[in-house]
Specification:
Elements lengths: L1 E4 H6 L2 H8 L4 E5 L2 E6 L4 H6 L1 H11 L5 H7 L4 H10 L9 H11 L1
Parallel strand pairs: 1-2
Antiparallel strand pairs: 2-3
Helix pairs in contact: 5-6
Amino acid sequence: MQTIGIKELQTNPALLTRSLEADEYTMITKHSKPIGMAFSFDDSIVTEGLKTALMIDAYKKGFLSLGQFAKALNKTHEEALKLLSLMGVDIIDYDFEEDMKFIESFL
């Protein structure tokens, strides 16, 4: 997450634009105190609601575990898995190449 001071934002608004284009969360501060958050727009914000869209994004980026994701949305693990599946989010992070290297070294 990036932090941008309001004065810095006034003199160089491109900092926020670059952060949004990079799909990063950005905290905006005034006198070093948070006053707001900025995040890039996604169609899921409209279809799923802001909180759900933010939680899905945080899960995809690895900021939340499945348990934290489910708890934040007040869902069971099964409901959370179904929601992620419906949104096309990979539930298991699987590195096939890493497993093949392990198998080759084992053999």
